[in-house]
Design goal:
Elements lengths: L3 E8 L3 E3 L17 E2 L7 E2 L1 H13 E7 H6 L13 E5 L14 E4 L2 H12 L3 E5 L2 H8 L5 E7 L7 E2 L15 E5 L2 E7 L5
Parallel strand pairs: 1-8, 1-9, 5-6, 5-8, 6-7
Antiparallel strand pairs: 2-10, 3-4, 9-12, 11-12
Length: 195
């Protein structure tokens, strides 16, 4: 089974979006360089960020996201983001009316069931869990192996928290990745398991 990674770009004060679900300047690092990160050339990052981010993206077999994010993005028009093979949507509701059942999206009730389904779909590849409420629930349930974040030099003041509504303490190991890019600091922590 592949590693389960909780991931997002985050402000230095811990938010992944503002109170209106807008990222504002959080994604500025994705256009702060001259190396194309995606096939369309829309995203251009520093060579350092490319060397860190592109191999990670290429290892993702499935992404777990909440219905709120799915709705905000209009389901990415039926095409998973960043070249991911499958998206597992945590939801208590059915797919939207008229949704193409052949699209590689899977609608699952509950975080545990969603991570299990994503693991099946990903095989030995990475399962990415979007940070926020769904990511926080997965972390609290002991389903996350690694926390990965792209920290940007922005203070939002309030908004959607990286760890969602997690209210308990969770220990992480020392960072095993600390990489400085243009307008971003890439960090990765293994989740400490109880002994």
């Amino acid at each position: 089974m592949g590693t389960v990674v909780m991931y997002a770009t985050v402000s230095v004060d811990g938010f992944i979006a503002d109170d209106n679900d807008l990222p504002g300047p959080l994604f500025d690092w994705l256009t702060a360089g001259d190396v194309p990160l995606d096939d369309g050339g829309v995203l251009t990052v520093s060579q350092t960020s490319y060397d860190h981010t592109r191999p990670y993206w290429d290892r993702i077999g499935a992404t777990v996201a909440g219905r709120h994010v799915f709705d905000l993005t209009d389901g990415w028009d039926g095409t998973p983001p960043s070249g991911v093979d499958h998206v597992v949507v945590v939801t208590h509701r059915p797919p939207p009316e008229g949704w193409d059942p052949a699209a590689p999206f899977h609608f699952v009730d509950g975080v545990g069931a969603a991570v299990a389904r994503a693991r099946e779909l990903a095989g030995d590849r990475v399962v990415e869990v979007a940070a926020g409420d769904v990511g926080g629930q997965a972390l609290a349930a002991g389903l996350v192996d690694e926390v990965r974040m792209d920290v940007v030099p922005v203070v939002l003041g309030s908004g959607k928290r990286f760890f969602g509504s997690v209210d308990g303490q969770h220990l992480l190991e020392d960072p095993d990745v600390v990489i400085r890019g243009n307008r971003v600091l890439h960090l990765s922590y293994r989740v400490r398991r109880p002994v």
